[in-house]
Write a structure and sequence with these properties.
By secondary structure, the protein is of the alpha/beta class. The radius of gyration is 21 Å and the shape is globular. β6 (188-193), α9 and β7 (218-221) form a beta-alpha-beta unit. The strands form two sheets. A six-stranded parallel beta sheet has the order 7-6-5-8-9-10, with helices on both faces. It has 16 helices and ten strands. The chain has helices spanning 2-17, 19-32, 45-57, 70-76, 84-103, 112-120, 144-149, 172-183, 201-211, 229-234, 248-251, 257-263, 274-278, 289-300, 305-319, 323-326; strands at residues 38-41, 62-65, 106-109, 126-128, 157-162, 188-193, 218-221, 238-241, 267-270, 284-285.
């Protein structure tokens, strides 16, 4: 709703306005509890910057957990990152993020792209802690019940996206490709599980669904409990990772959904972000709507020999991607 959207937009401004008081409170806790090392991440750059400077002054080791490309991800929750105001905010956040990387005793990242970025701006020490899946994802499910509940037929090709619907995605080519095949009479369906976090991007997705005439073949659900996610993945045939390669948040991402899709032996179609290219032996790359169309048609033609080896290799890789292995 618009009211909820307004609240989300005000949250970053609230944290910015109170950065000094938050910093002082965190430092008070650090001193009171005799904390030896501080691991910080997923904070707005100005707040984290203020905290890190104080930690360095007090010679407290600081680990910067760079979970994504903060300059655009943080800017995106305040304003359009491509607007004039957004470019100014992003520039300030970029300078702060690079400073944090340089002064941190250690930087941790989830993927290769962010590791290369951190090293390129002067990180002293970089460690990759790869994303993983919970062990319960590795239990294979029969998605038939959920397919029936959603009105999908057994022979439908169900293309799914599971996750937040936000500004780092490029959903339009996927929706256009789905629309083209639908108009040609192909039994294709689209399932999205997840809603927005803080921006208005889902409104654009709704407009594209209407514009390209796929309302009747689209099911868009809210977030589901994490333990239920494997059951919904089991209900799809193709797992999409339609990240916008022109958005730096997406470009530097290491999407966990790759391993989640593969844990249920699903075909994965991803845009060519670095992490997808690195793992291309387990997935297929879709650069545009024509690539989506090509792969959809191959699967509809039941030419599964092209997919089976990739799926099996991906499933075996996903089995090694549980969190227990990631932390060892």
């Amino acid at each position: 709703s618009s009211a909820a959207s307004d609240v989300y937009k005000r949250q970053p401004l609230y944290y910015l306005a109170n950065a000094a008081s938050y910093t002082n409170e965190i430092l008070r806790i650090v001193k009171q509890e005799s904390i030896d090392v501080v691991v910080a991440g997923n904070l707005l750059p100005p707040l984290l910057y203020s905290l890190a400077v104080k930690l360095v002054e007090r010679r407290i080791p600081f680990v910067f957990d760079l979970q994504d490309y903060y300059p655009t991800s943080a800017t995106g929750y305040i304003t359009d990152a491509d607007s004039l105001a957004g470019m100014l905010v992003r520039g300030v956040f970029e300078a702060m993020t690079q400073y944090l990387i340089r002064i941190a005793n250690c930087v941790t990242v989830p993927g290769i792209a962010l590791a290369m970025y951190a090293k390129s701006v002067g990180a002293k020490d970089v460690h990759i802690i790869p994303n993983g899946v919970s062990e319960y994802f590795l239990k294979l499910h029969d998605g038939g019940k959920i397919r029936r509940e959603l009105g999908f037929e057994e022979n439908d090709l169900v293309v799914g996206y599971i996750g937040s619907i936000e500004f780092w995605l490029d959903m339009e080519p996927l929706i256009r490709a789905t629309s083209i095949l639908h108009k040609q009479g192909a039994p294709i369906r689209l399932l999205m599980v997840g809603r927005h976090l803080q921006t208005g991007y889902p409104l654009k997705v709704e407009q594209w669904i209407r514009r390209y005439g796929v309302e009747e073949i689209t099911r868009w659900l809210d977030f589901v409990p994490h333990r239920k996610v494997p059951e919904y993945i089991a209900a799809i045939d193709i797992g999409a990772i339609p990240f916008n390669i022109r958005d730096l948040t997406a470009y530097y991402a290491a999407p966990n959904k790759l391993w989640e899709y593969l844990s249920q032996k699903k075909i994965v179609l991803a845009t060519p972000i670095p992490e997808a290219i690195i793992n291309k032996e387990y997935l297929f790359i879709a650069k545009n709507e024509y690539d989506y169309l090509n792969y959809f048609r191959i699967f509809l033609a039941d030419e599964k020999r092209e997919w089976s080896d990739v799926i099996e290799k991906g499933y075996k890789k996903a089995q090694r991607k549980i969190w227990l292995h990631s932390v060892q």
